[in-house]
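> call design_seq(struct)
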């Protein structure tokens, strides 16, 4: 069976999505680029989602410099194994690695892909999701970066045979070193990109203090908190929680938008949610066009009342 590379983004949903997608093209082999020991620590979860092999391209230098050593190691492995395609995460790092590999190997590259057919035809949503583009790499081994939350990962246990890959890092790849890494403390709420339920607030929330009404409702449902760009730009909530074209793409089972008008750039990041609930005091707000359930009303009345009903139903 043809081998398809999946450049692992860690033991997380995006990696499992890529492994699931790769299975429609051939037999997935995960490629782990990192410091020694990284592949062994995530091998079991890669096996669960169908990795027949796990290439451990490991070297201390891969985590000590910016992306150049990883791109170099990946390009070398692609040249050696000639897989049918290479899937990478559509993260900043993933796209930069893909770009460098595309130049090094003179290969075609498609970014921010949300679906991939067995013949390699890729789907991209452009102009804030207003236009869907279908395209195909016509030169070299297709490099494809996959957008998070594009599909539901399906487990399909496989062997995940560990294959050590010798890595040589050139001096040219060591021009920018990482001097410090700061890991932001993680709260108790689920990760926004991976949450099953997201409760988001917009400009209609009015202030940073009043965002507690969104947080309380989210905590009641065990949800992640999101925000519109107007809310983050106004300082109501940190930018990293922005949902939309220039923020995080989410695709939860339930997305609740409170005080959000539903601009096309916001919709681009949440319109594939399974069920969309909107609370807005303007019955003409565009968010109602895509909502499965809409409540026309003041969010400061609707959310606490809904919260009371949920608590009562749990007694
Ligand atoms: P508004 O459009 O001001 O809507 C506020 C809503 O709250 C209104 O519908 C109002 O009726 C309602 N409301 C007010 N008070 C209450 C209340 N008490 N109860 C209930 N409802 C109430 N936006 C994003 O969100 N994400 C992005 O990633 C993003 N990227 C962008 C990229 C570009 C290049 C550009 C140009 C714009 C981008 N935007 C993005 C901005 C986007 O165009 C909108 O400006 C933004 O989404 C509006 O946010 P909002 O709905 O919170 O605010």
């Amino acid at each position: 069976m043809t081998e398809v590379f999946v450049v692992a983004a860690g033991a997380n949903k995006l990696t499992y999505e890529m492994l699931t997608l790769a299975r429609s093209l051939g037999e997935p082999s995960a490629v782990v680029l990192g410091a020694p020991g990284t592949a062994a620590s995530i091998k079991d979860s890669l096996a669960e989602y169908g990795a027949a092999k796990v290439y451990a391209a490991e070297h201390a230098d891969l985590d000590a410099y910016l992306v150049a050593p990883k791109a170099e190691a990946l390009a070398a492995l692609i040249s050696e194994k000639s897989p049918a395609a290479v899937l990478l995460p559509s993260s900043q790092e993933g796209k930069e690695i893909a770009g460098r590999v595309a130049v090094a190997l003179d290969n075609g590259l498609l970014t921010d892909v949300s679906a991939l057919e067995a013949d390699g035809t890729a789907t991209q949503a452009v102009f804030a999701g207003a236009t869907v583009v279908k395209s195909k790499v016509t030169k070299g081994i297709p490099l494809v970066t996959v957008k998070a939350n594009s599909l539901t990962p399906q487990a399909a246990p496989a062997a995940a045979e560990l294959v050590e890959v010798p890595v040589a890092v050139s001096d040219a790849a060591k021009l920018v070193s990482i001097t410090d890494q700061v890991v932001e403390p993680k709260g108790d709420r689920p990760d926004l990109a991976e949450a099953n339920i997201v409760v988001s607030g917009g400009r209609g929330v009015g202030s940073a203090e009043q965002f507690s009404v969104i947080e309380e409702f989210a905590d009641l449902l065990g949800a992640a908190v999101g925000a519109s760009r107007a809310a983050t730009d106004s300082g109501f909530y940190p930018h990293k929680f922005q949902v939309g074209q220039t923020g995080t793409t989410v695709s939860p089972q339930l997305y609740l938008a409170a005080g959000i008008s539903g601009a096309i750039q916001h919709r681009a990041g949440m319109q594939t949610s399974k069920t969309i609930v909107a609370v807005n005091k303007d019955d003409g707000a565009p968010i109602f066009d895509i909502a499965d359930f809409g409540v026309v009303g003041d969010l400061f009345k609707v959310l606490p009342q809904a919260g009371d009903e949920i608590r009562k139903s749990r007694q």
